[in-house]
Amino acid sequence: MTLSHTMRAVEISEPGGPEVLKPATHPVPVPGHGQIVIRVAYAGVNRPDALQRAGLYAPPASASPLPGLEASGTVVELGPNVTRWSIGDKVCALLPGGGYAEYVTTHEEHALPVPDGMGVKEAACLPETCFTVWSNVVMRGGLRGGERFLVHGGASGIGTTAIQIARSLGARVFTTAGTDDKARACEALGAERAFNYKTEDWAAEVKAIGGADLILDMVGGAYLPRNIRTLADDGRLVQIAFLQGAKVELNFAELMMRRLTLTGSTLRPQSDAAKARIARQVETHVWPMIAAGHFTPVMDSEFPLDQAAQAHARMESSGHTGKIVLKVGG
């Protein structure tokens, strides 16, 4: 089909706060080998978008400079050698960047079908969080049924996803949250206990039931030594972000004496092949959870594309529960 030459987008005018996100006009991207062009219906808003906006998370050299790491919409153009998709297919996709725009390109293997019975708004919330949770909790962290799993920030997009996936796998799920209301929301999703980290000693509580076999953390800072103390013997800590800082003093003798594993990852810099492997596992294992009603994205709020700054302010206020999306197209 014939596409317009230009599109509406939101760009980062300079490093800074939410106010540096500005509406702009950009050329419609051209698909490369193995890529598809998606007409974006909704784009997910994620913490890495805010880090990029602040000048702390540069996109890969080959990626769009526009923010946006996940989106849903309709396939409208195919690059050379694309075999999986056809024009008109409804998809949600992990993106290297560029989601805050009317059109975006991504590798065909990083797109997944919109789950049956789910709208494109909800589907836009799936790729970044599902890829992150599955690759870190299961592929890297090795979570198994019956294990005790602690995820920090349980009311976030990552947290609400991790609670439901881990519970579907048969794990005992524990989490932290910043208010009693958020804690109760986490328990409604399947957490056995959710601790208000402002009023409860989550480390002591989890240690009292035997410690966590696996912890997923995006806080860092002072949480790191507390996480180590909270792990059960042979436990694993998977680090995916450092909201409170990446530098801290740790006693590594405890890792040796109790046979602990400390690991972590970031998703965006991984190769196309690595992301394709994650995509296949997500479609094989998580999409059936959605079909069975065991997992559904938790929605916080929706903003029009030109109010991306307000969406970022909402996310950085930490007042949200679940995912925030931008409505881009129809």
Automatic annotation (TrEMBL):
Supply the InterPro entries for this chain: ADH-like_C, ADH-like_N, ER, GroES-like_sf, NAD(P)-bd_dom_sf, Quinone_OxRdtase_PIG3
**Sorted alphabetically, which CDD domains does this protein's record hold?**
p53_inducible_oxidoreductase
Q: Name one Pfam family in it.
A: ADH_zinc_N
Report the protein name in the record: NAD(P)H-quinone oxidoreductase
Q: Which GO terms describe its molecular function?
A: NADPH binding; oxidoreductase activity, acting on NAD(P)H
To which species is this protein native? Pseudotabrizicola alkalilacus
Q: Which residue range or ranges hold the Enoyl reductase (ER) domain?
A: 16-326
Keyword Oxidoreductase belongs to the record: yes
NCBIfam families to which the protein is assigned, alphabetical: quinone_pig3
What keywords are assigned to this protein? NADP, Oxidoreductase
